[in-house]
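> agent: user asked for a holo structure of the chain below bound to zinc ion. Plan: (1) validate sequence alphabet, (2) canonicalize SMILES, (3) run complex prediction with ligand conditioning, (4) return tokens. Step 1... ok. Step 2... ok. Step 3 dispatched.
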Amino acid sequence: MVQELIQLTQQLIAIASINPQATGQTNTPYGESRITTFIIDWLAAQDLNAQLQPVTSDRANVLSVAQGTDATKTLLLCSHTDTVETTGYQGDPFDPELRNDRVHGRGACDDKGSLATMMIAYRNRVKQSPLPVNLAFLATCDEEYGMTGSRYFAKNLPIPLTAAIFGEPTGLQIITAHKGAMRLRLTTHGKAVHSSMPHLGQNAITTMAKAVQIVETFAADRASLPPHPKLGHDTLALTTINGGDQPNIIPDVCQAQIDWRFLPHQSPQQSRDQLAATLAEQLNCHIDLDILDIFNAMETDENHPIVKKFTNAASPITHTPKTGAVLYATDASSFTHLNIPTLIFGPGHITEAHTTSEYVQTNQLENALKIYTAFLNKL
Ligand SMILES: [Zn+2]
């Protein structure tokens, strides 16, 4: 069975599916359409139902649902089909070479190893015996950029969801919490005049320079707040800045972006308001602080039965009953409004993801499949 899993991982890597958002291109190697077609064909060849769920005109999720005795409950297995860019990749990123018990290639651990493991675990369980509850498999598009695939699915739920597991490279650790991400745009305003008479205008860049210091102090002060037991503190970072049009005009506008990684119990809106109030008070002038996007934080109660079940399935192989937390956001962010338990689990390590020599170890694949199998047998 491990041979089939390795081969499927290689087949998925060989179908380039770089997230097209940054470049706007959908011709190969960009876009998810070819890999979604492959997954639909694979499911159909196994006699499993498969439907394309269009998200935009050229991007889609793939969903397969197997009916259980209790059709009011559904456990979802979800992985994503897109990958990050291949710039600087050593060798051919789409030639999935097996070397030293590692499958190499872009997406090997993020997220095609998880995708292949879930596809096989799902098929095996559906074929094996009647299901007590519905079991669904979802392959989402656009996890790496806007999570539009999982957002669309969670907003237009075609099935009643009761729990969801997301395949990501956790190194076989069961993840019960992750931070959220909020993107903010800070705008300072000024008055444009000829730069030979700067005293007649107001320089938006100068105001931004002060604002940057205030944001940095505000960020450093977060360390004095009580930490989350697994995730520590929230963090803020200024990530872009733009201001001024030409050298002889005093700039009337300057904009910066802030990336805020917040904790599960924090309200992103309230956090934003707190920073806006601090900036307004200390700068003593009007600024704008706009929320561009929010990816929710995730946290599942450690005592939830699904956590216990998954831990019981994993611990004979991983030899640890401990669950963990990660700092990055996942497709689970799109499901928080449903108030269902969510877990993240999969083969490969996040330190190997997005690198110029991405790979997944074959024993990680094999053990991930064993754990998923043990868990699904106890549904
Ligand atoms: Zn991923």
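> agent: step 4 complete. Summary for user: Residues 180-295 form a domain with the Alpha-Beta Plaits fold (CATH 3.30.70.360). Residues 80, 110-111, 143, 168 surround zinc ion (CB under 6 Å).
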